[in-house]
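ugh ok so i messed up the first submission bc i forgot one of the chains. this is the corrected input, ALL of the components this time, i swear. 396 residues overall. if the numbers dont match what u have on ur side tell me asap before i send this to the collaborators (the ones from the other lab, u know who)
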Amino acid sequence: MSESTGSAAERIEWTTHCMPVLASVTDELRDAKPFSGARIGICLHVEPKTAVLLSSLKDLGAEVVTTGNFGTTQDDVVAELNARGHRVLGSRTDNAATHLQNKRQVLATQPHLLLDNGAELYSELEHAADSPLIGGTEETTSGADRLRAAPPLGIPILVINDSPLKRIFENEIGVGQSVLSTFQRVTNSTPAGKEVVVAGYGWCGRGIASAFRAAGARVSILEVDPVTAFDAAVHGSAVRAREDAIALGQIFITATGDRNVLPVEAIAQMRPGALLANAGHFGVEIDLVGLTNATRQSVVSPSIERFTFPTGHSGFVLAGGEMLNLAGGAGNPIEPMDMGLTLQLLCLKEVWQNSSQLASGAQPVPESINRVLAERMLAEMAPHLRAPREGSEPHS
Ligand code: NAI
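and heres the new structure output, hopefully the right one now
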């Protein structure tokens, strides 16, 4: 079968059809134009799903300027969006300096709201008080951790990742399934019967563990938090001592948000032919600098690189150690992103309309938004599962 990809316009069209929740919320708000007068600065993976969100925000009256996260931008989607009158900066091959320049260009437009992924824009802000910025959202775990560790910005930032809906549907189900499917596609191999080590048993890690176990792998867990390690153990994973996991593993997947989880010294102790991949937000979980210095490299395919130690034994890194499901595949499945990006839209609207009533600092998505969206998702996906409302007919 051909591997060819349709045009960005076709992919955006397909994705739009698969995002009914965002579409229906956008339709309901279209006439009210709730973002009239709002300038929104965005740093988010640029791909067809985010393209649908950008169109919704524009349709609802916002002026939007966007740049992608490092290493995951789909260049043809950027070109298509710009041709449609959006303002999107950056390309997949940008180096760190160009990426920084793009982020600064977004901030230079003096946005009122930021939608950030990894606190890439927030960490470039010097003083929110000197700008028209009134608040925004943060998409992911790693970004929320960064915001909470940094000096306060004095504005409300709703953390999408703190919504139970996002954790369950995107991090656990979406990341689990898309990391597995991307692994299978880029390697053309199955994890069945193999020893797979997942580092980090948080929301993403447990989804990855469960997807790989369902595909026939023996899964073991590396986890620094003892309570979480216990959770993994009682859900059927082998929680191994680090040395044992390193010696036994054939496939390693990091999902911790931490850096240097697999240092070069550990990689040197792995079985020959070990496959290493990362699902965490930043491409720093596998020690690529150490690995590059200690080995000879060769390219197997666009998503597989071989690292050969002077001893002659090799390991393989998938998708350059960047997020496997995004850098090597099409990202999270569309439905969890339909939900997650609708959360983004509703939270940005909440900040734009009610920022003075919100506390400042990183904070969870308001419970009322979670409940409304959960109802809509249930109505969309499984109307027969909804509890009968008072006065409605009982299920037969
Ligand atoms: P989480 O906070 O629920 O879980 C992280 C787990 O890793 C925790 O249990 C923690 O104890 C453990 N951990 C931390 N350092 C460790 C180390 N050195 N060794 C072993 N375990 C360690 O976070 P979540 O939501 O699972 O996210 C994990 C990462 O994945 C974050 O960087 C997040 O931004 C990213 N992410 C990636 C997505 C993707 O599409 N690939 C989507 C959503 C999040």
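quick check: Residues 140-142, 171, 175, 199-205, 222-225, 228, 255-258, 261, 279-281, 323, 325-326, 332 surround NAI (CB under 6 Å). that seems consistent at least. The CA atoms of residues 27 and 88 lie 24 Å apart.
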